[in-house]
Amino acid sequence: MAINTKIAQAPIRELRLDAITGYSGSVHDLAARTAPGCCLSNRERSFAQTSSCSSGCAQTLLSGIVDAAVVNHAPLGCLGDSLYQNIGYHYGQFHRNWPYSNVSMISTNMGESDTVFGGAERLKDGIREAWRRFKPKAIFVTTSCASGIIGDDVQGVIDELKDEIPTPVVPVHCEGFRSRVWATGFDAAFHAILTRIVKPPEQKSKELVNIINFRGSARAYITDLFARVGLKPVFVVPFATVGELERISEAAASLTICGTLGSYLGTALEEEYGVPYVKSTPPHGFAGMDAWLRGLGQAVGKEREIEALIVEEKRAVQDDLAQVRQKLAGATAVIGMGPGFSLSYIRVLEELGIKVLYAASWHYDQHYDHGSQPAITTELATEHQDIPFGIGEQQNFEIANLLKELKPDLYFSRHPGSSVWAAKQGIVTIPVMDEYTAFGYRGLVNFGWRIADALANRRFVNNLAQRVRLPYQQWWFEQNPYHFLSQEEAA
Amino acid sequence: MPDVVEQIRNVCALGALQSVAAIERAIPIIHAGPGCGQKLWSALSSGNGFQGSGYAGGHSVPCSNSTENEIVFGGEERLRETIENSLKVMDGDLFVVLTGCTADIVGDDTGDVVRGFREQGAPIVHVETGGFKGNNYFGQELLWESIIDQFLEPADAVEPGLVNVWSVLPYQDPFWAATLETIGNLLKLIGLKPNLIYGHGQGIKSVRSIPSAQFNLLLNPWLGLKTVQHLERRFGIPFYQYPALPVGATETGRFLRGVAAYAGIDEALVEAAIAREESRYYYYMERAADLFFETRFKPGHFITIADSGFALGLSRFLVNDLGLIPEAQFVTDKVPDQHRERIEAEFQDEVAGIPSPVIFTSDGGAIREVIQGLKFRERPLILGSTWDKVITRELQGYPLSVSLPVSDRLVLNRSYAGYDGGLTLAEDIYTVILNSFQ
Ligand code: SF4
Fold first, then answer.
1. Which run of H or E residues covers position A235?
2. Quick one: which of A226, B121, B122, B377 has the most CB atoms within 10 Å?
3. CA-to-CA distance for B162 and B176, rounded, in angstroms?
4. How far is the CA of A77 from the centre of ligand 1 (A)?
């Protein structure tokens, strides 16, 4: 089960974590059938809509490292999402009061002749230009479908440039076609960071805590919270420097905002350098935050201080929570998010008094890198009534079908290009774009009020639903939402 | 400088899927890896004016999401089932199958698969747009070649006055939708019937009526030339080309006179229309004059960083209508070599007779290095992309995002084309200037 940092690339999630993208059932069923020792086989789709690929996830993380550069060895289109990453980068700079700069990314701009003769020269140009223009502390070379299929030897090119480029140049294997699970790209990026950037600890810290996250909008709050128990957060990977990443092996513990994101890095740091990785449920809502903070307390030996913090923080928002729960009582919801959020938000919404009718997850890891089932799955299976659950790579047509059938008051989604479709169906839609939405106690209450506001005025979605048409034929709405999933293989 | 690209301003050939999405009730089906659709939509739509998913775009585009299996064993079976089920699930008038890198490198016979469905009567065409073959301008030309060859039928008769409009590249230009409406309205002013093909109220019937047009209007210095030439060969439709997107009164007047002369429209009618429009235009421009002449914040020299047709239009407006001085013009649409000299000459063709250096590049690093080498005595006005705001701020200049990526503005029905477009651009420029200190 251990993470192997001796190999060139992280195995894809389908192989490493038995990740699946096709399933229809319920949370209890899923928990039972993916319990240790069991394994669910994937159900393929014979019809699908465009999803996302691992290079996007890899580049989202790497483009955010402030003094590194990314060279994408690909035709121009594969850097299409750099625009979106640049928006995210500016968003993070805004939260830090930093001056605006752009992500440092270069496309090698592969063309037809490169697919015939190989793209080595272009890749050299790209690496040289990245060095000349940005003088980065590290250069990450991300691969693509084109460079992967034609078999360009990225490491070979890097080796040839060794004497010329005085900074680490690191290959990141994130060809889109290798995996249906875009989160595989996180692992590709972490593998590169772990194997080539992170250094063995020189001096272990008692106060530094790695927080594996995306844009870090709750940075100020967490810094304040941790200061009260004598800890200091280090936010990785975006907005960290290469120098900070070199030393994450010295931290007292690692936490993550999302198990899907943090599994590879957190586990590897624990296995290689003894940095405890908190494997609790994510810190969404009250129960999630309790578990997250307690996990941290245990890891750093500050159980008592953490308990006091929990009591204080909870007390501060208790009345507010009661009020907003009243407002939301009786509302129904459907969830569509990545697995790090989808299951956890079942509990978040119920803490707010909202009834969850269905949850869909964009993929599912049957176990994490540390070997166990995601904690949230186990907890929902034991402490909670069963809820219908499905898995698909953000298949909007399946969600549209589900929503038409279930008619919830609310749809909660995470990932660009999903929530708008529910809004077009006249359903009040709450996108959970920021990873610190519903973060802990205060976050939960603030989130609750945001939902209450959305429910209080439904004009925009109502207007929209009356006027726009969905791109589906009536036939589709008469089918089962998971009509196109293949039959389960007999065990 | 090597042919690598920092800060992309255009995408790969598969970007043509957004041109399909720009045709009402047309549905792209992509035979590609799982990430292409998301990346291209990010670049062309959501990261560029937040243009939205539209009817069947964004993450609702049917896709084979090809993985290892399709690479090793070929993806034709997977494509066949994707198309078959797309036709059952998706409600559309025209389906366009576009391929990405995976399918084209592996060598799937997409044409054969699609032909099977077409022969059974499905309104479906295919185009091989593997990203390595070229950029999205190239993809656009391939797309229309496919639609012309695989879908259009000769017309029974020519419809007098009907003009097909080939101009801005949808989604690449975030203002495309309203710009097309504006061009349509300008053509109506002089009695022509525009066939805009893309955007609101168009759709399949506009596509089908392409062969019956009296002529094609190519409102671009190069993009679309292949398409109108192909239409000329195939259906005998002649074309009229005007290179610059007309912005403001001077250029719009020139454009209208040009197209009217070509179409043989009565000169008096055209002059009357222009006079009417100019009178209204100057009613508003006169108001702006107080600010222009009494502000301490008149911009210094200007720079445009945009696709050729748009850059030309912007530059001519700023020189000919507003009386500003150009510093450098960056042309970012990867203009094929054979068109460059002519486009350079067009940039010198200002009514005011003021020359301006033209630089063909889409590499943000190259642009930045040129700009850093320039000397500005006053705060420059830089009409470019959101990427360029960083260098503009360093120069204490005035940035306005007008070309991909426009990620700091929501673009709905804004356009800088025509008479109103010139006024809108003047408003936007001075909003930036006045906002910079209050
Ligand atoms: S370059 Fe190829 S793999 Fe990349 S987005 Fe374009 S078609 Fe897809």
1. strand A232-236
2. A226
3. 20
4. 5
Q: Collapsing DSSP states into helix, strand and coil, what is residue A65?
A: coil
Q: Strands A388-391, A23-26: parallel, antiparallel or unpaired by DSSP?
A: antiparallel
Question: Given strand B398-401, what is the order of strands in its sheet?
Answer: B358-360, B326-331, B302-306, B381-384, B398-401
Residue A81 with chain B: CB contacts under 8 Å: 35, 38-39, 42-43, 47
Q: Are B109 and B76 in contact (CB under 8 A)?
A: yes
Task: Note whether B218 and B224 are within 8 A (CB).
Answer: yes
CA distance B66 to A50: 10
Q: Max alpha carbon distance in chain A (Å)?
A: 68
Residue of B nearest to A106 (CA): B6
CA nearest ligand 1 atom 8, residue: B36
Give the CA count within 13 Å in the CB-facing half-sphere of A286: 17
* DSSP state letter for A324: H
pTM value is 0.96
Each residue's pLDDT tens digit, B375-416: 999 999 999 999 999 999 999 999 999 999 999 999 999 999
* A253 phi, psi to nearest 5 deg: -170, 165
- Which chain B residue lies closest to A100 (C-alpha atoms)? B390
Question: Is residue A491's pLDDT more than 50?
Answer: no
Q: Which two tokens stand for residue A460?
A: 């925009």
Instruction: Determine the distance in angstroms separating the CA of B433 from the nearest CA of chain A, rounded to an integer.
Output: 19
Among A166-175, A370-379, B138-147, B164-173, the range scoring the smallest mean pLDDT is: A370-379
pLDDT digits (tens, 9 = 90+) for B318-339: 999 999 999 999 999 999 999 9
Cα(A27)–Cα(A15) distance, integer angstroms: 22
A315–chain B nearest CA distance, Å:
40
Cα separation of A129 and B389, whole Å? 22
Complex ipTM, two decimals?
0.95
Q: Average model confidence (pLDDT) for chain A?
A: 95
Inspect the interface and report whether the beta carbons of B55 and A53 lie closer than 8 Å: no
